[in-house]
Design goal:
Nucleoside Triphosphate Pyrophosphohydrolase, alpha+beta, 44% strand, 7 strands, 139 residues
Length: 139
């Protein structure tokens, strides 16, 4: 069996501080150039919480305390010929800010805390928009 055809498990972390949410500008596909909740693939043997902690640190330099899952979804992208390009099963966790100032790292071009007003003028991934609306952060 081709393991590249299997869905990949990924995690994201929703982190708030002073009325703003932590977002990263993606450097790679999927979502290259879009702002999104920080996160990434879960390594074999790694818990969702450990993966969220690691990914947020790698992408933003922020230390978090991961909490419970708040959103789960499939991200499926196909080539023009219909073949599978990406299939991720993503679980977003609530997470408490612990320390640090955001700086883009790993596969994030930028990282910053954004208010709802700042988000209105930026390009966000569809799943991030859906999640921020679902939790009432943006209308």
């Amino acid at each position: 069996m081709d393991t590249h055809a299997l869905p990949q498990v990924a995690v994201g972390a929703m982190v708030f501080r002073h009325g703003a949410v932590l977002l990263v500008k993606r450097a790679h596909m999927p979502g290259k150039g879009l702002w999104a909740i920080p996160g990434g693939r879960v390594d074999t043997g790694e818990t969702l919480a450990d993966a969220a902690r690691r990914e947020v640190m790698e992408e933003t330099g922020i230390v978090i305390d991961p909490g419970e899952p708040i959103y789960a979804f499939d991200y499926i992208e196909r080539e023009q010929d219909g073949s599978l390009r990406f299939h991720y099963v993503i679980v977003d966790l609530a997470a408490a800010y612990v320390s640090g100032e955001p700086t883009g790292g790993d596969d994030a071009l930028e990282a910053r805390f954004m208010t709802p007003a700042e988000i209105a003028s930026e390009r966000l991934s569809r799943s991030t928009l859906d999640l921020l609306k679902r939790v009432g952060f943006i209308p």
